[in-house]
Amino acid sequence: MDQIADQLSTQVVRVNYTNRRQRLKNWDLPESDWRQLLHGLHRLNPQRGIANSHVAAVIIWSEVTQAEAPRCPIAQNLRAAGDTKNLTSRVNMLNEADLGRGNHFRLRRRLSLYAAQLATACDQNLPLHVSAADVVAHEMRLHTTASP
After folding, report:
1. What number is the average pLDDT over the span 6-13?
2. CA torsion angle for 69, 73, 74, 78 (degrees, to 10)?
């Protein structure tokens, strides 16, 4: 029994969420990545819709750190500046898009793929750079294989 417990304890990948939060303390979603993540999602209007780069950054940060959106430094900075503009409700609405279809769903999936790569960079102490073009290409392959 001890041998099995030892084997299981060495196989478990432990995520250092404190490290992730420290690494992402000053991180923000680059504007060029945000534009790339919107590529091909023609009916999304970032100015009028629920999605903007701040909302996307908060969702990515929350997914990487497994922390609540209000704890995100970006959200805290916006709140302190009085520039929240329904940030919490927009984050919640886009998170709910994870359950549906359409362009909001596709954007939400892209944010998750981006977050997964950013988490890997954090865990491996690599530069916090994600290829948004690779994320979009991956999501487009997923979309193509899922379409009837």
Report:
1. 65
2. 100
C-alpha distances (whole Å) from 21 to each of 27, 79, 109, 120, 140 are 10, 19, 22, 13, 29
Q: For residues 54 and 34, give the distance between their C-alpha atoms in angstroms, rounded to a whole number.
A: 9
CA pair distance 108, 124, nearest whole angstrom = 24
- The 10s digit of each residue's pLDDT in 37-93 is 999 887 765 555 567 888 999 999 999 999 998 899 998 988 887 766 677 777 877
Encoded tokens for 40: 């091909």
Instruction: Provide the residue count of the chain.
Output: 148
CA–CA gap between residue 66 and residue 55 (Å, rounded): 16
Nearest to 44 by CA among 89, 87, 90: 90
Compute the chain's Rg from CA coordinates: 17
CA dist 146 and 140 (Å) reads: 10
